[in-house]
Design a protein that fits this description.
Layout lengths: L2 H16 L3 E7 L6 H20 L8 E7 L4 H15 L3 E4 L3 H14 L3 E3 L14 E2 L5 H14 L4 E7 L2 H13 L6 E8 L7 H8 L6 E5 L4 H11 L6 E3 L6 H7 L7 E4 L15 H15 L5 H20 L4 H9 L4 E3 L2 E3 L15 E6 L2 E4 L2
Parallel strand pairs: 1-2, 1-3, 3-4, 4-5, 6-7, 6-8, 8-9, 9-10
Antiparallel strand pairs: 10-13, 11-12, 13-14
Helix pairs in contact: 2-11, 3-4, 5-6, 8-9, 11-12
């Protein structure tokens, strides 16, 4: 190479290094009741931002993660979203661990016009469709229908619903009430608990004393479902126990202990990555994520970190297709996402569907011998 060529190459490299970063905004619940969701979400974003930067960045520019911890407080999430938009001037946002945090951010995001990938579970995040809001994680309505489908298959016709009073639980409660009759199932008991409650025995005692209950469906996230599961065992209740998609991690089994044995819960294929057949289209994706996350952080993966992976890379792919970080163009490309295979399933978005997942993206799992396995 000539001296001039060397100088040109050095100049190009220096230009890339000096390029303004693409700013990835994030508000996650890394502490507080939702910490076991938010912690792996943040670690996943940190890991892949570093990984992309080591590969030369995105569009020849480095990525910069600008992150705030809302402490599982929706009011703080709103304030941090304002900061990301007005002060940090981020190019897109991945976050909103909980439904409450997400929905507190949505009005600001819609007004400012910033592409937003939410990690929350409630259907309200994407229904009705909002121009700038997307999520590649399943909804509570889909979760309710998936659980009810399994109950119907096993001949269960009368159930008790126990949901938390936070946004996720209450939306899940409403969606379950909306679709339960469709499956020939009757709610004979309907109780709630607070997400910060340390004991749900009074509600479970009512359920135990209700005639005809054949199974318990718990709709919540964080530590609450583990407490409920332990209380069920302590009260000697032997009914089948189902959880929605808020407990998909090894942390739930750790918190619930032996009481988790036999519990059924919804989770994506990621939670049984090592048990998937090689023919499963998600096998390469989930296996790569497990290897990367556990190699970096020396801890088990969770579906919540997997959701951060999917939502982040959907935006990355959109930016690549757009060839720019122009917000309108990136938004359009997110909406045009088709056949994206992630840890949570295949995502196919449209103008009328800002999630793009169906009921079967969730697997019905069961705890056996202290580990998640696919339920029969």
């Amino acid at each position: 190479m000539t001296i001039g060529g060397i100088a040109l190459a050095i100049g190009v490299m220096s230009s890339a290094i000096a390029a303004d970063p693409i700013k990835v905004g994030s508000v996650l619940s890394v502490t507080g009741p939702a910490a076991f969701l938010g912690d792996p979400e943040l670690k996943t974003l940190q890991m892949y931002v570093d990984d992309l930067n080591n590969q030369g960045g995105l569009l020849g520019r480095p990525l910069q993660l600008v992150h705030y911890d809302d402490g599982s407080d929706a009011n703080k999430a709103n304030a941090f979203a304002k900061r990301l938009i007005e002060d940090d001037k981020v190019d897109f946002i991945v976050g909103g661990t909980t439904t409450g945090s997400t929905m507190s951010m949505v009005p600001l995001i819609e007004k400012a016009g910033v592409p937003f990938m939410s990690l929350a579970g409630a259907v309200v995040v994407v229904e009705p469709v909002k121009k700038w809001v997307f999520k590649a994680s399943t909804t509570d309505r889909i979760a309710a229908e998936r659980v009810l489908t399994d109950m119907k298959k096993h001949g269960i016709t009368k159930i008790a619903l126990l949901s938390d009073t936070a946004g996720f639980g209450q939306s899940g409660k409403a969606q379950t009430e909306l679709v339960v009759a469709k499956y020939g199932i009757t709610l004979v008991a309907n109780e709630t608990y607070g997400p910060k409650d340390t004991d749900a025995s009074p509600q479970l005692t009512k359920i135990r004393n209700t005639p005809g209950v054949e199974a318990i469906f718990v709709f919540g996230f964080g530590q609450g479902p583990a407490i409920v599961t332990k209380n069920i065992k302590q009260l000697g209740i032997t009914l089948p126990v189902y959880h929605a998609h808020g407990v998909g991690s090894e942390e739930f089994i750790k918190l619930a202990g032996p009481a988790a044995e036999g519990v059924r819960a919804l989770a994506p294929a990621l939670m049984i990555a090592d048990k998937l057949p090689n023919s499963d289209p998600q096998k390469p994706v989930v296996s790569a994520y497990v290897k990367a996350f556990e190699g970096r952080w020396k801890e088990h993966v969770s579906m919540f970190g997997g959701q951060a992976h999917d939502n982040f890379f959907i935006v990355v792919d959109a930016v690549k297709r757009a060839g720019t970080v122009d917000k309108e163009k990136v938004r359009d490309q997110i909406e045009a996402t088709k056949k994206y295979i992630g840890t949570g399933g295949e995502v196919n978005m449209t103008a009328a569907d800002h999630m793009g997942l169906d009921m079967w993206s969730l697997r019905m799992l069961e705890v056996k011998n202290g580990a998640w396995v696919e339920a029969q």
